[in-house]
Each structure stands twice: as C-alpha cells, then as structure tokens.
C-alpha cells in the first residue's frame, strides 16, 4: 500500500483478451478474474490509503450494451443481455470499495481501438492485404471504433475532468456498419473486399465468441466526452485508418 500513497490517479486496464480463442467455461472464468477480481483488489487497496488518489479510472467495454442493432446508445442506456454485458456490468461494479470516498471513479467503455500493433485491426491486416477480407454476416452490425490516440486521450480526459464520473464511452462520434468498415479498410490498403464470411461460418469457427464480437454490435455515441469538451483527433474512420497504417494521402488528411 505504501507504494500507492500520494499518487494522483490510478488507471486499471487489466483483462485477458476476449478474442484469443473460443469461450469455454474455463476461459470465461479467466476473463472474469482478470477484469473483475483485479479491479476489486486494486480499488480495495486504494480505499485503505491515507492519501487516496483523486480519481480511479477503470476499463470496461461497450460490450456492456449487448446487441443493439442500429439503435443509437449513450452512457444512459441500460445493460444488455448475454455473457459480455454481464461481464462488463460486474467489471464496472468492482470498484465498489471506493463508493462514498473522495476518490472519483470513471468506467471507460472502450470500443474497437484501432492500432496495427494488436487487437482486432492487427489481426485483420494480413487477410485484407491478401485480398481475402470481406464483410461478416449481414454486414449491417455496427462497429463503434476509436483511434488509439483518442483512446489514450480520453483516459487523460477522464483523469483531468473532475465532473466526469461513472461510465464514459471511449468511441469516435461516427460509428459505421461492418460493411462500411470492411470497404473502408480495403480502400485504404488498396485491396478488394469481395469475399464475405457468412454468419453460419463465423459461428461454426468461433462459437459464442464470434457471435458476440463479430456478428453483434451497438451504435455507440460518446455523449459524455463531447459534453465535457473532449476534441477528437479522428472522427472519420478512413482518416484514422490511413494514419494508423501509414497510408495518408498526398497533402495530408
């Protein structure tokens, strides 16, 4: 505990990757422990400090909302149904030891963070470069994305904005459908995107994980970020992809 005394802010980002394999019961247990248990343990430690930080920022995800179709949702929306919303709900409740203390708690509901160094985009680059990328299922499910730079920026925004409490959607203000995401990535890479993967194939290959992460989606709006003055570096998907992949057009975008 003495190593935490006097720190200004604590940021908790722990969590085993959800896309690292099929969701067996054992993997679900690991997902829970690596998120909920660690957040609870750290927040309990912080609550016992003599000089507590002013803010405890804890990761969550837009999986909280579940499958919402094309209905816009913001931080006021209720929790969805299924394993992922249940996991995110427990994740956000984990810092309960800090309720009633002077430490402000912010739950970062991350969308799809765009970076070629990992995550979903990192795994998509090779098949798309090979010309075998395509929409998933109907392609109508929404992808609520955020540029890596804005994801980091919004963590800092949560720390520096004393009026922010509770959930904060870490997503760009212009979510797109899977079909639009696919065609935009193909255009940036200069590759065709004509080979779709049917829903049945996704479910057969990836099971519950494929259904929850790839075939379902939510049209998430970053209402709190905009209301508290956060300025997005990248609001348009193509601009973000060109920046992250080093494909800016002549003259800059």
Feature tags:
single chain; 253 residues; alpha/beta; four-stranded parallel β-sheet; two-stranded parallel sheet; 8 helices
Task: Tell me what the structure shows.
40% of the residues lie in helices and 15% in strands. By secondary structure, it is an alpha/beta fold. The strands form 4 sheets. The chain has a 4-stranded parallel beta sheet with strand order 1-2-4-8, sandwiched between helices. Strands 3-10 form a two-stranded parallel ribbon. β1, α1 and β2 form a beta-alpha-beta unit. α1 runs parallel beside α2 and α5 (178-189) packs across α8 (237-244). It starts with 8 loop residues before the first strand and ends in a 9-residue tail after the last helix.
Would you summarize the structure shown here?
By secondary structure, this protein is α/β, with parallel strands linked by helices. It has helices at 25-47, 83-93, 119-129, 148-160, 178-189, 199-215, 223-227, 237-244; strands at 9-12, 55-61, 72-73, 104-110, 112-114, 142-143, 145-147, 166-170, 176-177, 219-220.
List the helices and strands and how they pair.
Elements: E1 9-12, H1 25-47, E2 55-61, E3 72-73, H2 83-93, E4 104-110, E5 112-114, H3 119-129, E6 142-143, E7 145-147, H4 148-160, E8 166-170, E9 176-177, H5 178-189, H6 199-215, E10 219-220, H7 223-227, H8 237-244
Parallel strand pairs: 1-2, 2-4, 3-10, 4-8, 5-7
Antiparallel strand pairs: 6-9
């Amino acid at each position: 505990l003495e190593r935490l005394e006097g720190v200004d802010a604590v940021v908790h980002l722990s969590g085993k990757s959800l896309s690292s394999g099929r969701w067996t019961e054992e993997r679900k247990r690991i997902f829970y422990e690596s998120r909920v248990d660690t957040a609870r343990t750290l927040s309990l430690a912080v609550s016992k400090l003599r000089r507590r930080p002013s803010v405890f920022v804890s990761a969550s995800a837009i999986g909280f909302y579940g499958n919402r179709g094309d209905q816009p949702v913001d931080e006021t929306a209720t929790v969805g149904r299924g394993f992922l919303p249940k996991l995110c709900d427990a994740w956000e409740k984990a810092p309960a030891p800090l309720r009633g203390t002077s430490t402000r708690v912010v739950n970062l509901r991350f969308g799809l963070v765009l970076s070629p160094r990992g995550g979903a985009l990192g795994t998509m680059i090779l098949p798309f470069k090979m010309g075998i990328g395509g929409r998933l299922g109907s392609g109508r499910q929404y992808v609520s994305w955020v540029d890596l730079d804005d994801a980091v920026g919004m963590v800092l925004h949560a720390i520096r904005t004393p009026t922010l409490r509770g959930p904060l959607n870490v997503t760009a203000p212009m979510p797109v459908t899977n079909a639009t995401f696919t065609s935009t990535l193909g255009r940036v890479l200069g590759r065709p995107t004509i080979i779709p993967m049917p829903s049945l194939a996704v479910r057969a290959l990836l099971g519950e994980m494929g259904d929850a992460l790839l075939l379902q989606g939510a049209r998430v709006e970053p209402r709190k970020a905009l209301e508290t003055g956060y300025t997005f570096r990248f609001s348009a998907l193509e601009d973000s992809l060109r920046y992250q992949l080093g494909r800016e057009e002549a003259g800059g975008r």
